[in-house]
Write a structure and sequence with these properties.
With about 270 residues, the protein is an all-alpha fold. It has one domain. It contains 12 helices and no strands. The mean pLDDT is about 85.
Length: about 270
Amino acid sequence: MLGGIVCFTLLAIAGRAVAPAHDTFEIMLYRSMIGLTLVLGWAGLTGARVRRGPLPLHLARNLSHFAGQNLWLHAITVLPLAQVFALEFTTPIWVLLLSPLLLGERITRAGALAAALGFVGVLVVAQPGTTLDPGLMAAALCATGFALSVIFTKRLTRTESLLSILFWLNLMQLGFALIGAGWDGVIALPPHWALGWLGLVGVAGLAAHLCLTRALQLAPAASVMPVDFLRLPVIVAVGVWLYAEPVNPWIILGGALILAANWLNLRQSRR
C-alpha cells in the first residue's frame, strides 16, 4: 500500500501537468492505452492467461472507478491538492462502513472509532464551512466511486488473478474513455511536451492499481484502506514544494486526527 501512495502522488502531479492539453476523458483514454499495452506485455512475457471471469462485477468495478477518476482529475486542476486528497479520504471511511454489507467483513469497535476520528479529521482539513463549488463537489463525490471500486476489487480478488483484474480495468476504461472523449467528435492528440507526463499517468496509474489490488489480496479492506491516509502529509509537502500552496493550522490539525485514526485501526488489526 505504501507503493500505492507513491504512485497516486505521482499521478496527481502528472495529471495536473497535462490538464492544459487534455480534458479528463482524453487523459483517461491515453492512460488506459498505456496501461493495456503494459498489461498485454506482462502477459506475453510471463505466459499468463486472462480469465473472462465475472464480467458484470468487472463492469461495476470499472464504471465506479471511471466515474471517480474523472471527478478526481477535474478536482486536482481547480483545488489545492491537500483539499482534494482530504475530501477523497472519505473513501476509506466508506469502505469501512460498507465492507460488512458487501464483503461480510466485521467492523470492530476500534475500527468504528477510527472511522469516526478520521472523518472528523477530513472535515477539519476540508473546511466544509466554505462555499461549495463544482470542484469541491467533484472531490467529494469521487470518494463514493472509489469506495465502490475498492469493494468490488476485494470481491474480485477472491477468484480472479491480478493480471485479469488489471486487463479488464484498462480494456473497459479504454472503451468508456473513447466514448467520453469522442462525444464531441474531437479527440486531441498530445503535444510533444505532454508525452512524458501522459506516460507517467499511464505507468503510475497501472502501478497504483497493482499495489492496491495486491494489498487487498493480502488483507481485509477495512485494514488496508486506512493506510491510504498517509497520502495527506505527503501531498501537503508536494503542494508546498511544487505549487507554493499554503498550509494552514486546520490542515495540520486535521492531518493529525487522520494519522491518529490510521494508527488506531492498524494497531487493532495487528492485534
